[in-house]
Amino acid sequence: MINTPAITKRRIVSLVPSITELLFALDLEEEVVGITKFCIYPEKWFRTKTRIGGTKTINIEQIALLQPHLIIANKEENVKEQVEQLAASFEVLVTDVNNFDQALEMIRQVGLHANRADKAEILATSIKDSFASLRPAPLQPIVYFIWKDPWMTVGGDTFINDMLLKAGFSNRFAHQSRYPTIALEDLRHLGACKILLSSEPYPFKEKHAAALKQLLPDAAILLVDGTLFSWYGSRMLQAPSYFRKLNPLL
């Protein structure tokens, strides 16, 4: 990592969609100069900020032209070799978020590096307080799909799993790690449970729910907003009210 002197107004490039939205919430309109093509929120930034490729296909030459003081990446969302190449020339903050508490700490760290420590602390505290009102009991068993062909779910060591617990759901694949691939036929042996189809990264639609219902007629199948389960950052403020709508037991 390259050490840089303190700068009042830092030029920032974000390689992570949820962190781009966080930077907007921290009032960094002028500081953020580059985002990925998947950074669709806020919509204004998507239209006006320089796009530097995808999360896993970043354009290093284009980033260099922006001469950033800080690049924010994520261990899971970005390619290690590309991040290391950037770190040879620029200051890079590599985030790693696998649960709720780490998400709050990430917000604080981003705020510290972007000269918005006070705003970040207020945001992190607000998120923590909003989740404190959730009282999930008993937990409802679910399967949460993020992809099809192959069908992929989430393991217990993921941020999504932690958010499922906050929402009052018990992940039937929490005993596995990261993002396991499963056979749909295996779901027949799990017993009664809900199936949640996420809106991202795979954009599940009603047609997918209908097809799955034919295979598993006894399952309750719901389409859910994947950003409220997987986006760590300012969007977490919206999650508790959404979770209450999904789970009346909260």
Automatic annotation (TrEMBL):
Q: Which Pfam families match?
A: Peripla_BP_2
Gene3D superfamilies, sorted: Nitrogenase molybdenum iron protein domain
Mind listing the UniProt keywords for this protein, alphabetically?
Signal
Determine if Metal-binding is one of this entry's keywords.
no
Domain Fe/B12 periplasmic-binding residue range list:
11-250
SUPFAM superfamilies named among the record's database cross-references: Helical backbone' metal receptor
Q: Which InterPro entries match?
A: ABC_Transporter_SBP, ABC_transptr_periplasmic_BD, Vit_B12_bind_prot
Q: Which domain of life is it from?
A: Bacteria
**NCBIfam families, A to Z:** TroA_like
Protein name per its UniProtKB record: Iron ABC transporter
Q: Which organism is it from?
A: Niabella soli DSM 19437
Provide the organism lineage as a comma list. Answer: Bacteria, Pseudomonadati, Bacteroidota, Chitinophagia, Chitinophagales
